[in-house]
Amino acid sequence: MTDAALREGIAHVARTHLGFEGELTDATPLVEALRLDSVRLLTLVAELENHFAVMLEDGDEADIACVGDLVAVLRKRMGAGPADPAEGTPPG
Amino acid sequence: MHIATVGRAFPPHYADQDTLIAAFRAAWAARYHNVGRIEQLHRNVLVGGRHLALPIGDYLQLRGFTEANDAFVRVGTDVGAAAVSDALARAGLTPADVDAIWFVSVTGIAAPSIDARLVNRLGFRPDIKRTPIFGLGCVAGAAGVARVSDYLRGFPDHVAILLSVELCSLTLQKEDLSIPNLIASGLFGDGAACVVMTGERRAAAMGLAGPHVVATRSVFYPDTEGVMGWNIGTDGFKIVLSAEVPDMVTRHLRGDVDRFLADQGLDYPDIATWIAHPGGPKVLEAMEAVFPLPEGALERTWRSLREVGNLSSASVLMVLREALENPPPPGSYGLLIAMGPGFCSELVLLRW
User: Fold this and answer.
1) Residue B310 and residue B41: Cα distance in Å, rounded?
2) d(CA A40, CA A37)
3) Which of B34, B41, B242 sits opposite A49 (nearest CB)?
4) Euclidean distance between the first and final Cα of chain B, in Å?
5) Is B344 a catalytic residue?
6) How many domains does chain B divide into?
7) Does the residue A53 lie in any domain?
8) Nearest to A38 by CA among B341, B229, B36, B183
9) How do residues B3-32 score in pLDDT, each as one tens digit?
10) What is the ipTM for the molecules in this complex?
11) What is the DSSP letter of B149?
């Protein structure tokens, strides 16, 4: 899968599940652009996993600041085996 | 405005969290690539098990809002009757003694309301004053105590009851795989609680030893409608739950309680008993972080969360029940706190 296809997949998930409107580039900062609090971050992670049929791992978020970083992490995880779900404590 | 007793009732079905997680995994695995996330979310809420309105296998058979709400009316009337009967028996009262009833719920609707059905079932007097309230959500237990207290100021010889019936399991959205719905499906449980309260003169006549309501305060937070609530549609109640809920504690609740206590001439060391709604781990951790609480002050609340989950408005009344059974010395103060959709908070100062 090309980086462009990964970027488009991220944008699709952001539009569909986070109400994002606009364009994403590699330099787009994720937390600010997608207003990622803990619930929205978990939503992004889970829906990316569904969309790309990939498992993201604990600690992956440490390497991610912008869309380009996320593309790189997704590329690394594509084809990887099952992993523990990312940390997330609900707000309830 | 005295609190005489709190009764409670649960539907007869109970499942531990492991059993519930297995059921959710089975139901959602085909549509969720990383099904381990369901388990992680359901374990993070620190709930050990929950009572259920229906046998666990029946939930997948429910077709839409009509059948779920029919179950709410049927089971809700049963557990509501049981909670009222428990509360009145503990107070040595009968339904004929009750002058007014407040009914609160946010997990089902009925007209005639559940309280009306209980007039017929339990034999309340025909002149009973009824006030069913929908929509306050988790704050309704505390708000209900406050509103009943307001009423009893004007009717010091009366007996009034507050009944909360919450069957959260019947709001489950099987087609909604959003993170808020996954959290809600792991956190919320079913139950009913009933508080018996009396006016001052009635309490004196009965020789009540329970706490009285010293003061109450409602605080509404403008422009926070998206923090928590329902989107209501064809399929019923779809959860709205944002990560801002714990932030409400940090940003607002500490200052609200500061002002409330100061207005009563009190400070934190004066509060012997904390009766907090068990909203969830992050909310309780936020409370423990921002309030100068003594060690274990929220233990009743944590225990309630572990044992039965978040029962929305009924939860804080379950915690109140525990506080009544282990009262502090006479003269001690207690603070009952809950937050809910609006977003808003309700504070009730008690004194034993």
Assistant:
1) 15
2) 5
3) B34
4) 12
5) no
6) 2
7) yes
8) B183
9) 999 999 999 999 999 999 999 988 888 777
10) 0.72
11) H
